[in-house]
Amino acid sequence: MSQIGNNIKKLRKVKGLSQQAFADMFNLTRGNISSYEEFRAEPKIAVVLHIAKYFSIPVAELLENQLTVNEILNFEDHFDQTSIKLDSKNLTELPLLNREYLQNSDKVDIKELPNIYFPIYTKHKMLAVEVTNLIPHLVDFPYVEGSVLFFEHVEIDILHTLDTKIGFYLNQNDLFFGSYSVEDKEIKLKLNDWKEETFTQENRQYFWKLYAQFSRV
User: Domains of the chain (ranges plus CATH)?
Assistant: First the structure.
């Protein structure tokens, strides 16, 4: 059983934070915090990572163990700068487009997105996207709400791999998950019979191809 609800409550008490104050720190609502602490819901993985990073607590400890007051007070010294630098060499920093950002923004600017670190390695630019009903998707879309999908930017050297693959289109406030179709030299990312975008050299910055998936078991 996850201990995240117990640990959020313990963190609040130790740090002297109300539910509202804690919620404000992570762009949540007081209702979100209440539901976590009462085991009516669990935070998305992006929120867990944000909390763990903010309080310098290992993610596994935050999820699996009931933290004590002494542990919480000592976790601030758990990581020294050397270990952080060493660990970060094994991870890739990725912008994360999540539900919270979409709820609070009229258009998406990748440069303004929060970042996460993940063991994904590719020479192409990467983008992490949380699956949410705020982003239109295919009728038979196989990924569940709350999953995080990792996309690589579409470059010339992967054009031949696109046919039938899941893709993501992002142009400010126009975004959707779709399926690629390649016919002769024409490449399209299709959402449905009424919505599709054609890939060209001029607009290729808007097109992404699914690279990997992270989901809670």
Answer: 4-80 (1.10.260.40), 92-214 (2.10.109)
